[in-house]
Amino acid sequence: MNVAASKRRAPPPPGRRASGALHDLREAISPLIRVWAPVPPTFLGLTLTAVALWAFFTIGQDDADHVVYALSAVALALVALSNLVVGAAAFVLWRRVRRRPSGVPETLMAATEAKTHFACPSLRFWPLVQVDVSWGDPDTAVVTLEPAGASFVERVVPGERGRYDHVTRRFTVRDIFGFASLTFWKTWDQPLRVVPAVGRADAGLAVRRATSDGYSHPSGQPIGEMVEMRRYVYGDPMRHVIWKTFARDRQLMVREPERAIAPRPAMVAFFVAGEHDEPSASTARVFLEQGLLGADFVFAAEGAVKPTRHPAEALEQVIRSRAHRDTQCDGLGALFRAVDRARLDNLVIFAPASDGPWIDKVLTASRRLPLPPMLVLTVDGALESLSRTRRQRFFWEHDDRTDPTLRDLPAVYDRLRAAHADVRVIHRGSGRRLEAAQIDALRGL
To answer: 130 with 3: CB under 8 angstroms?
Structure first.
């Protein structure tokens, strides 16, 4: 029998929660599954072997039931053959892939399918076996295999942004009956960068002096443009005299630089890393790449060593913030210490539309600011749920396909609005800003 191409089952859509008991059980036995993975017999194969042995020695021999005797012998032979073929096929596959390059590009985009250059042997001439490939690191990637001659073409969809020092693939060889399965891992020491998905955002969110200049300061050094005027005094350079004013008013006036501190940034932005923050990362990327923060800005993401003024470095901070989701907005205090307090009247915070400790930290920090910050929340998923009736929502809730950011948004929005925060909600798929009526329609999901 020819090899049947095996494809990894895609993960549930965003927001579909796994069954509680089943999910907890799978998490509890996951160490045992990893230890048992290199061993060919499966639970089904062991169960069939035990039943066949019992039937062979009790009913088949003691009762002289030749039908049961023959069926038991065939079952034992089939399990043994499956384990033998799977073990041999896994050894051949391991020898073929151990020296092959990873074939993974240095940069991938989250939620976007990409074709790698890794050719996985299909073992199509081996009987009874199937080959499956998945990624162990990053573990959020979804892998699809497409037959192409004697190999499989690999397509991968990274689930989340991040920086990785290596790529690990999980190879599984199993028989078509499910009696035997053998898994091994192969790691390539290759750095991988997964950038946030490209999103869309309403350009009207570029708010509050996003393109303004610096501000004068009466005690600052005279380093600004020659825009100030005063009366001429002895010793002033004649080239600074405004002769047009003298011709009109007969008063000698000279130009001098405005007294200004170094121009301060028009916008200060901070990215909060937390659960379900991928849509928010996409919005932050849009703001950085499209210049919605203005030409002069300061940006910091969770876990960043120091703020930056460069879009490329800011995007890199957003990528690396995935490793700091547990800190939940602790980096906001560091940003306040690094930036002059007077400049924080134009603060933008990109935050996930999910509840967490970050809300209390943001609200506490906002009380020390001259003006409340603008909180940009980003949701994902289908907006068709806004128009469902209560009965449809009741059945949809059991189906549980609502994106978690849509489901949690009303509660998060209420907490922030109760503290008089300036909240803007963006839908990643359409780039539209959600109004209060649309947010109210999400209640009860």
So the answer is: yes
